[in-house]
Amino acid sequence: MPNQAEIVGRMARASGISHEKAEQALVAYYGVVAGSLAAGQRVRMPGIGTLSAKPTEAHEARNPRTGDKIIVPAGHKVKFAAALALKDLLALAAPTAAP
C-alpha cells in the first residue's frame, strides 16, 4: 500500500509538477474531503466511489478484556461506496480462485 510520500511522488511525476506542489495539492484535497464530510456532505470521486458520514447511535458493548459492559457514545462513521468502474477494475485484477 503506498504511503503519502509515494502518492505525492506519483502525483508529481504524472502531472509534471514539483513534489512540493503535489504535496500541497494532496493536503488541500484531504482538507476539502474532511471538511465536506464534517459538514454532512457526500464526497463523490468519479471512477472511485463516494464517501459519506453516517451517524451512529449510542449503544452498549463489552470490553473484550474484562467482559464489563460499556456505553459507546453516539458519533459518526465514514461510509465508502465503490463506483462500478472501480469494482470492475478490481474484478479484473483479482486472482482467479483455484478449483
Describe the protein's architecture and organization.
- It is a single chain.
- The chain is an alpha+beta fold.
- It has a single domain, classed as HU Protein, Chain A.
- Helices cover 42% and strands 27% of the residues.
- The protein contains 3 helices and 5 strands, in the order H-H-E-E-E-E-E-H.
- The strands form 2 sheets. A 3-stranded antiparallel beta sheet has the order 1-2-5. A two-stranded antiparallel ribbon has the order 3-4.
- A hairpin with a 3-residue loop joins strand 1 (43-45) and strand 2 (49-56).
- Helix 1 packs across helix 2.
- It is extended, with a radius of gyration of 19 Å.
- It starts with a helix and ends in a 6-residue tail after the last helix.
- The mean pLDDT is 93.
Record keyword descriptors for this entry.
alpha+beta, 3 helices, 99 residues, extended, three-stranded antiparallel sheet, two-stranded antiparallel ribbon, 5 strands, HU Protein, Chain A
How many domains would you count in the coordinates?
1
CATH homologous superfamily, by name?
IHF-like DNA-binding proteins
Coarse morphology:
extended
* Strand fraction: 25-35%
> What do the pLDDT scores average to?
93
Q: Helical residue percent?
A: 40-55%
Which structural category do the helix and sheet elements fall into? alpha+beta
| Order of adjacent strands in the largest pleated sheet | 1-2-5
What is the tally of beta strands? 5
CATH architecture: Irregular
The N- to C-terminal Cα distance equals 29 Å
CATH hierarchy class name: Few Secondary Structures
* Number of discrete helical segments: 3
Q: Please tell me how large the radius of gyration is.
A: 19 Å
Biggest beta sheet summary:
3 strands, antiparallel
Low-confidence stretches: none
